[in-house]
Design goal:
Layout: H1 16-25, H2 31-39, H3 42-54, E1 56-58, H4 64-76, E2 84-88, E3 95-100, E4 103-109, H5 110-115, H6 118-134, H7 137-144, H8 146-153, H9 157-186, H10 189-200, H11 212-226, H12 229-238, H13 247-259, H14 262-270, E5 272-274, E6 281-283
Parallel strand pairs: 2-4
Antiparallel strand pairs: 1-2, 3-4, 5-6
Helix pairs in contact: 1-9, 2-7, 2-8, 4-6, 6-9, 6-10, 7-9, 9-13, 10-11, 10-13, 11-13
Amino acid sequence: MTQKLLNLTSTEYEHSFDKTALEALRIVPGFDTVMNFVLNWTTIRWHIIGLCGSNFHVTNESCPELYGLVKNVAESLDIDRLPEIYTIWSYGVNAYTTGYKDNTIMVVHTGAVDLMTNPELSFVIGHEAGHIKSGHVLYHVMVDFFSQIISGSGLMKSLSVPLQLALFYWYRMSEFTADRAGLLACQDLNAALSAIMKMAGIPKRYFSTADPKVFAKQAEEFMSKYGGTIDSVIRNISILDDSHPWTVMRAYELIKWVEKGEYDRLLEKHKGKLCPICNNAIAQDATRCPICGNQIFK
């Protein structure tokens, strides 16, 4: 059972790349127009109706184990409201989150459920929960439906290119923040790296023998070899219209965050204790349980 991180805020683990890219995105010409188009709900509603009508709805009654895992992840990240959860038949090791305001939907690929251990799956689900906690979902919808949004908004073609590039760049940077949320959810760096390693394409027959530390070494060697200024330009150009950073970059950034001590600092800062009467998680310095009123001595 993972530790519940009480009063955790997304800004505490937000990656600087994410913050800088989002600030730059918001001042790109055309951003407000596209945002207003998304806010009217028309574009995403068609997708939501089709998604809910053709995929499996995960509830405590229909699929209690997976529902319980998502619930545990949400509690670990101090998220009060669970999203709707669906599974889609796809053997990619993946998941995504869509929706609008209170109608947020997390979609988990069957490949992620079948091919991952529970700690690895907690990382993937925690990653998506991190997007929800950070308020990324609306902007992700903008990326996912960009072509419809541009044609429907009447933006000039000259405005769409810089906006598209800025959107995709921020989308990629937001993944680094979400990976940190995934690690805080599963609380196991090896499981997080193993999950990313499976996304990178390791064959299923080697799942039980592959060492996440070897993949971590690959990530470090990649940055050592291709981390220079010119190579950085090449890397950025290569993935201009991609929604995700390369897997080795994700592993490298996660390892760096842990090595800096920020991950352990957040675990220590937000760890709680359990009320002996109602078993509710409460803040470490609390003297009375807010649920049952039991007095608790330090």
